[in-house]
Specification:
The complex is a heterodimer. Chain A is α/β, with parallel strands linked by helices. Helix content of chain A is 34%, strand content 14%. Chain A has a domain of 141 residues: Rossmann fold, CATH 3.40.50. The longest helix of chain A is centred in the last third of the chain and has 18 residues. The N and C termini of chain A lie far apart (40 Å). Helices cover 81% and strands 0% of the residues of chain B. The longest helix of chain B has 38 residues. The chains are: A alpha/beta, B mainly alpha.
Chain lengths: 251, 260
């Protein structure tokens, strides 16, 4: 696969203009965050990319494929871990492989590698309710990566976790991303999380949902939590927060 | 001993049983109640032992067991078929649900005399009655179960490209299992009830038939003895269904599994 292109040119339908004139292209291997106040259409945008809902106008493509239904090039991490309680962790991670009828043997290795990478070695045969929320979410990330998608969509994946676990998961995510090198689109409520993780942050504004600004975060990598206390990071956070205040929405 | 302290019911339950039986025995003796009205527990025990030694009892037990199990099997089979169609095809749901609800409103026991005319005094009429009574709770549980699948789980499978049938087999059926077993649990008891009631209304064999014969002869201890046997059947059936449930739907009632 050569350079990855995603072109959103989407117009929301019906009476509610959910998304208006979204134009954006992500480079291969780029970490993009989408932030914005409630109702700005960031989850709608992600669902269009996932092929779950249809677009009214314009085009959205992943790796040169127009998204009109869920594509195998896409992996997704959800707000809740959404593991199937009757399957072991390993069996849960294998769900995309089964659904897409891929080579089981080959991907079993891949699944185990990912679980080790996510620090879940030894938990392969446990059931989801035997794991903590953070561990379940990490298994959910492994599931999203098992079929080697080129794009990873994340819909507020750490929203349900406590602050400590969340910071830890952010570090874990960067570590996994460094190894797997997917293009990531992360929807989040947390401005600091977006700044910490991303190459670029898309700031959206509501009614109709449109891109207010795309901010390039040129903090050096690898990033550390200490970096978030630096002035440079503070400037980005402040800049993004400005848009939230302008929308007069407190979350 | 320590787990006895944590679970006092392990001692209290048997104590309640012993006290209850002792009171029953003594009060009946004290008041000199006629055995035909209310026999003592020891007389019922004697009657039970007599039955255990009679080959005719065992063949009657087998007759009723057969009727209940066959009725239960048919009820389950038809409930699975009907439940799948109703839950998957909207038009079937809309068309047939009013009839099913109307059918459920009939007191099924009242159908027994009709089944007797249609299927005779033999086992067939009892199997049909048992199946008719057990069918509805199993069906309702299957429908509820198949509809119970979490939207997030379905969404997750769709994102990964699952077809409708894959969603059905990988999410909806597993989600339905805890409901299905809850339905079976109710259904098996109703099947036993159906078989016995069917025998009451006209039969040549079976435990229900034995109760009738005992009543005709004023053998009240025997009637109580057979009541005990029927209870035991129900309890054993319940235990078996629960064992299957724990094996095949282990996540259903294990929400506080964490920390084990």
């Amino acid at each position: 696969m050569s350079g990855l292109h995603k072109i959103y040119n989407t117009r929301g339908g019906g009476q509610t203009h959910a998304l208006s004139d979204i134009n954006f292209t992500a480079k291969k291997g780029e970490f993009i965050s989408i932030v914005g106040p409630s109702g700005c259409g960031k989850t709608t945008l992600l669902n269009i990319l996932a092929g779950l809902i249809s677009k009214t106008e314009g085009s959205a493509s992943v790796s040169g494929h127009e998204v009109s239904k869920p594509l195998p090039e896409i992996g997704m991490v959800f707000q809740a871990p959404t593991l199937l309680p009757w399957r072991t962790i390993l069996e849960n991670v294998m769900v995309p492989v089964e659904v897409q009828k891929l080579d089981k043997k080959k991907h079993l290795e891949k699944a185990k590698e990912l679980l080790t990478l996510a620090g879940l070695e030894g938990f392969e045969d446990k059931y989801p309710n035997e794991l903590s929320g953070g561990m379940q979410q990490r298994a959910g990330i492994c599931r999203a990566l098992v079929h080697s998608p080129s794009v990873l969509l994340m819909d507020e994946p750490f929203g349900a976790l406590d602050a400590m676990t969340r910071e830890y998961m952010n570090l874990e995510l960067l570590r996994i991303w460094k190894e797997s090198n997917q293009t990531i689109a992360l929807v989040t409520h947390s401005i600091t999380e977006a700044v910490f993780l991303s190459d670029r942050v898309i700031v959206m504004s509501p009614r109709p949902g449109r891109i207010a600004e795309i901010i390039t975060i040129d903090l050096p990598r690898p990033r550390t939590l200490d970096m978030m206390n630096s002035d440079a990071a503070g400037v980005f956070v402040k800049k993004i927060r400005h848009y939230f205040n302008a929308a007069n929405v407190i979350e | 001993m320590k787990h006895l302290r944590n679970r006092p019911e392990l001692i209290l339950s048997p104590v309640v049983f012993v006290v209850f039986v002792a009171l029953w025995e003594n009060i009946v003796n004290l008041l000199e109640v006629d055995e035909i009205i209310l026999p003592t527990p020891s007389r019922i025990g004697d009657a039970l032992l007599v039955q255990f030694q009679a080959p005719i009892f065992w063949s009657n037990l087998w007759v009723t067991t057969q009727e209940a199990l066959l009725g239960f099997a048919f009820a389950t089979l038809f409930a699975i078929i009907a439940g799948t169609f109703i839950s998957q095809i909207r038009i079937v749901d809309k068309t047939f649900m009013p009839y099913l609800v109307g059918f459920q409103a009939i007191p099924k026991v009242a159908l027994a005399p009709i089944f007797l005319i249609w299927f005779g005094l033999g086992q067939t009429s009892k199997v049909v009655l048992a199946a008719t009574i057990a069918f509805f709770p199993i069906l309702i549980n299957i429908i509820e179960g198949l509809k119970s699948a979490d939207n997030d789980q379905i969404r997750m499978l769709r994102v990964f490209g699952a077809s409708r049938s894959q969603i059905f087999f990988k999410v909806q059926i597993p989600c339905a299992l805890p409901f299905f077993f809850a339905g079976l649990d109710v259904g098996i008891l109703l099947a036993i009830l159906g078989a016995v009631v069917g025998e009451f209304l006209g039969s040549q064999a079976g435990l229900g038939n034995m109760v009738l014969v005992a009543q005709f002869n004023f053998e009240t201890p025997t009637m109580f003895a057979i009541l005990l046997v029927l209870s035991a059947m129900g309890i054993i059936a319940h235990i078996i269904v629960k064992a299957f449930q724990r094996k095949f739907a282990f996540w259903g009632d294990n929400s506080n599994f964490i920390g084990n």
